[in-house]
Amino acid sequence: MRIVAALAFLLLSNACAADTARDWLDRAADPQLNLRQREYAARQVLMLADSSASILISALQGVGSDSGLRRQVAAGLLGEIGSPQFEAPLLEAAFDKNYFLSEAAAAALARVYSRLKDGELYSLLKKGGRDPGTVPGGVTEGDDWLVLSTGQARHRDRIRGIVMRGLELKYHDSANPMPDPLADCVWEGLLAADRDLRLYSIDLVPRTGSSLASEKLAALLYVETEPKLLVRALRAMAEMRPPQYHDAVRRHVAHSDPQVALEALAALVAMGYDELLLPAAQGERAIGSYVVHPSTPVRRRAVELLAESKNPGALPFLTQALFDRVGPNRAAAAKALGELGFPGAVGGLSPLLGDGRPDAREEAAVALAKLGVVGVTARMIDDLQGDDMPFRRAAAEALGRIGDVRAAPALEKALGDPDAELACLAADALAKLDRKQSGPALYRLMTGGGEAVVVDAARQSLEKIYRDDPGDTPSGWEAWRARNKL
Predict the structure, then answer these.
(1) Which residues fall within 8 angstroms of residue 102, CB to CB, at 6 or more apart?
(2) Any idea what the Cα angle at residue 105 is, between residues 99 and 110, rounded to 5°?
(3) Confidence (pTM)
(4) Using an 8 Å Cβ cutoff, are 434 and 408 in contact?
(5) How far is the C-alpha of 212 from the C-alpha of 189, rounded, in Å?
(6) What's the rounded Cα separation, in Å, for the pair 84 and 137?
(7) What confidence tens digit (pLDDT) does each residue in 146-194 have?
(8) E strand or H helix at 70, and its extent?
(9) For residue 179, is it left (φ>0), alpha (ψ between -120 and 50) or beta?
């Protein structure tokens, strides 16, 4: 009788956990919620991984729902869990007619593959899929679920591209070069017909640790014609900096696509041709001259490259970018000037404190504070206490990044705001101030029975300030409270 009762309790618990996982998944895919709320819901699904795996697979396959966003979110979460057992349903979704679902499944598959051993990756790259009738782990099934991968060369190349993407994830931050057999797969990928396979092979060239890397990439620069692939190849060249192949790079400085031309200049500067960073005369082709280019992404990339150069001569060009007609570009220029610490930038940055874009105003405030300008904190507190919610949120983020403890009272007051996103940002900012005097206010927020995402933000901030994890139980928090005298 006890065994029956125990089994019944277990089944009931599993059913409740499954219902909970479905509920959190619905929230994670709810477009009416803000990004933080959706991310919090997604984390809750991951915490129920054992119970939610089958729920996620069903959602990925569209069972009981026609929500494309829900299927995409399910794909992403399966990638986060990263179990090889998810390969089959993700592979099927990677060939779905819905482009966004297909891309989400491909990205998730790449994360699964990044956890495989080198030998398994090599086998997949050579075959373009597993042997028919097998699933990850070598278990044989009656159904050949990989027909779509073995039926057509196009599908095999698509899978190789995804596996190559997983290989790039595996070796992206690795100090060890990849083994020669895998490097050979990279060289083969550079010449493949499939565009994605070539794209991810290019990204892997600097990771090979091979003396052939520069030579292979230089050869590609002579024959490749697609702008996107050329951009990636030139960025890889800039990372490796092989001076002996400057001719292969220089031929693209006058390319008709401005993004290709700009990346060619950046690669040459990385190789030591510093005169191509800043134009010496009006109309001269150099990275600095692109801050006024008609293309928005080109202007943005020019700002990024000037910031990376850390060259004081970039000041007038970055100051010019502060007047860009696109808000994110102004924000990027302000951030660059703050990071570079150019005192001469104060005059250009100051007007951005009244900019019509919250992100530009935030970056200008942080930059001016770094440059030692007085009164920036007070100005951001005014924004925080204003009526315009986007600017209030930007001010909360700026005050946390500025790190001035004089902002603490205003941020503590913002913890009680009915806007959940602002309350969360205020909690984040207080954590960055690292001020234990804010502990009681954060603790009240955490225990006040408010929205789950706000409670979670308060908890995370308390843990960052006190560097102490109380655990998940109420008794653990009570002991923590007594220990810290809150």
Answers:
(1) 93, 94, 95, 96
(2) 125
(3) 0.83
(4) no
(5) 14
(6) 8
(7) 444 444 556 788 888 999 999 999 998 877 888 889 999 999 888 888 8
(8) helix 68-81
(9) beta
